């Protein structure tokens, strides 16, 4: 695997390389990322990944500073997964001047759910992804479904800007007890780790309820929130939404997704399941 720290170096290496399948990450890679890298192989003859902890998508007081930087271990995993090129810029390379131009996703997509609790987050994500797309110029890019709202916003951004990039979703990878793999799971104490799958179970129960014919989404959400609160979680939201646009569904609608975000002390976990 070739490692590039500069835009010019990466561009020179990719010139004439063929169809590039790209997986952007913030590092601290786990099996979910590795699955995306392997999946990428089916979407391009060259697989490129990036590692960049993007300050723009963190709010003051969030975990930008403590976000785990595990470059050596990440490189080993990427090589093992067959990645050809890694783009790993520092902040000076990505943001040599203050990034005053930005991609502003619409509030009905970026101001709800995670966007309500992390204002500006998706503006930061969309801006860095647009910039990474401009740098890498991939023909395909892969994003995990665990960040369901992020995937939807990127997909809509690519469509509206007519970017010639196929956006490919990757399934959420879970631990045997159901917990969705996430770089932030590493913040959990042993006791919190044992408690963490409750979020997945709460979302799963809603999915089962809907599949069994219960269309009282508000009641299903309220029950899940109560269960989490009873076990010392601080939920931000549990929400049944339309899976295409994340808007509130009518009772008869199909194509639903159940999303949740909740904190176990200072660690915020998110998860979702399509119905
Ligand atoms: O999902 C992530 O890891 C990040 O939001 C992304 C897409 C790499 C942008 O920084």
What are the salient characteristics of this protein?
275 residues; alpha/beta; Rossmann fold; Pantoate--beta-alanine Ligase, Chain: A,domain 2; 2 domains; six-stranded parallel beta sheet; three-stranded antiparallel beta sheet; globular; binds pantoate
Bound molecules: pantoate
Given the C-alpha coordinates, what overall shape results? globular
Strand order of the largest sheet: 1-4-3-2-5-6
Assign the CATH architecture of the largest domain: 3-Layer(aba) Sandwich
Give the termini distance in whole angstroms: 39 Å
Task: Give the count of helical stretches.
Answer: 11
Q: What is the CATH homologous superfamily assignment of the largest domain?
A: HUPs
- Our Rg estimate from Cα atoms comes to 19 Å
In quaternary terms, these chains amount to: single chain
Strand portion, in percent?
15-25%
Low-confidence stretches: none
Task: Give the number of domains.
Answer: 2
Give a short summary of the structure.
This protein is an alpha/beta fold. It is built from eleven helices and nine strands.
Topology:
Elements (H helix, E strand, L loop, with lengths): L1 E3 L2 H8 L5 E6 L5 H10 L5 E6 L19 H10 L4 E3 L3 H4 L12 H4 L3 H4 L3 H16 L3 E5 L3 H13 L5 E5 L19 H6 L2 H14 L5 H14 L2 E10 L13 E9 L2 E8 L1
Parallel strand pairs: 1-4, 2-3, 2-5, 3-4, 5-6
Antiparallel strand pairs: 7-8, 8-9
The protein binds pantoate.
What report would you give on this structure?
It contains eleven helices and nine strands. The termini are far apart. By secondary structure, the chain is of the alpha/beta class. The model has no long low-confidence stretch (mean pLDDT 97). Helix 8 links the parallel strand 5 and strand 6. Helices cover 37% and strands 20% of the residues. The strands form two sheets. The chain has a six-stranded parallel beta sheet with strand order 1-4-3-2-5-6, sandwiched between helices. It is globular, with a radius of gyration of 19 Å. The longest helix is centred in the middle third of the chain and has 16 residues, at 121-136. The chain binds pantoate.
